[in-house]
Amino acid sequence: MATGPFLSQPTESAKRIINDYFTEIMYVKDEGTALAGFEIVDVNSSNLQDIKVTVRLKYVNGLHLPTTNYSIVPIKNHYQVKKQYCAYDSIPESPTYGSLIGCTYESSDNGFGIQS
After folding, report:
1. 63-75 pLDDT, tens digit each
2. CA atoms within 13 A of residue 83's CA, in its CB half-sphere
3. What is the phi/psi pair of residue 7, to 5°?
């Protein structure tokens, strides 16, 4: 989404970008657990250089994971989801099963998500 329109309503724009991003992921065939849905829990637009959107993901297999923050950042006059890879403890017998292990960001200049 272009910077001008985004900044006129940053919270609503961030919700729209996240909605477009995860809707696209839901319809892309990929290996692994299929994303069945998502819920936007919170948007913190106090820092317009790194807007945090808290999302709860729902998977086809019923896996319940904790909410995760996603960043929306300005890149070349557009706001985009900063693409990240998150790892969760998926060992059922583990005492930390379902917890977030950590997230890493894709480092390439064009490694950002779907533009709205």
Report:
1. 777 899 999 999 9
2. 11
3. -70, -20
| Strand bridging mode 35-44 / 51-59 | antiparallel
Predicted TM-score (pTM) of the model is 0.80
Residue with tokens 């948007």: 43
- The conformation of residue 93, written as its DSSP 8-state character, comes to T
Name residue, tokens 């989404």: 1
Q: What is the pLDDT of residue 33?
A: 61
d(CA 52, CA 54): 6
H helix and E strand count, the chain: 2, 6
Helix (H) or strand (E) holding 3: helix 3-8
CA distance 104 to 8: 30
Strands 100-105 and 35-44, sheet pairing: unpaired
Side chain identity at residue 13, one-letter code: S
Query: Around Cβ 61, how many Cβ atoms within 10 Å?
Result: 7
